[in-house]
Amino acid sequence: MSGCGCSDIEIKDQSQRKVLYWLLGINLVMFFVEMGYGWFAQSTALIADSLDMLADATVYGIGLYVVGRAVRAKANAALISGYCEMTLGLLILVDITRRIFVGSEPVSMVIMTVGAAALIANIVCLRLIYAHKDGDVHMRASWIFSANDVIANAGVILSGALVLWLDSRWPDIVIGIVIAFVILRGAKTIVADAKNELGSEAALEKPMNCKDINLIDK
């Protein structure tokens, strides 16, 4: 035995890092764009989606940290990511409750324009992560986040159209609530997947690295 598959592992790790760097960068940029325009447009849906982008960026940062590490570390990272998303979903619901009582005047054209830009950004993210959607647990989590983001963005655009059509702030609030529950559902799926991984024998096994295998060969 000579190669021990190390080059294949390194190629996979490099591929994961490259994808996660792109996802991290895109989500950070869109967080600032959506948050800024969300406050300007007084849009619950845009602000909810921007916070989702921030949570996803955090998740991708955690994912970068565990690339190349043991399965257990990746599962723990996915678990933390899931709880982060869950917390975010609850915070969005708190903010929506505040806005229901305080009031808002969402600007429909800004909501639709920024929502469309976010949708394009997340479709790019989805294409980038597609090859890894059935891979390690932290990459599966990233796939779920990206897929949920596309759904949320479509909802944001719909809310802007309904605000314009009905001349009412309620579609924006309702879509914000829907986005929060989409986030919570995705978080629940990720937490369950991570716990499954941690409970399996594969996750508890100490991984044998290339150095260990080469020592055995000798």
Automatic annotation (TrEMBL):
Q: Which residues cross the membrane?
A: 19-40, 46-67, 79-101, 107-130, 142-164, 170-187
Q: What is its main location?
A: membrane
Q: Which Gene3D superfamilies match?
A: Cation efflux protein transmembrane domain
Q: Which GO terms describe its molecular function?
A: monoatomic cation transmembrane transporter activity
**Cation efflux protein transmembrane domain boundaries:** 24-194
The protein's location, in the record's own words, is: Membrane
Please name the Pfam families in this protein's record.
Cation_efflux
Against InterPro entries, the record matches this protein to: Cation_efflux_TM, Cation_efflux_TMD_sf
Q: Might you name a Gene Ontology BP term for this protein? A: zinc ion transport
Which keywords appear in this protein's UniProt record, sorted alphabetically?
Membrane, Transmembrane, Transmembrane helix
Q: How does it sit in the membrane?
A: Multi-pass membrane protein
Q: Which GO terms describe its cellular component?
A: membrane
This protein's name? Zinc transporter ZitB
Q: Which organism is it from?
A: Zhongshania aliphaticivorans
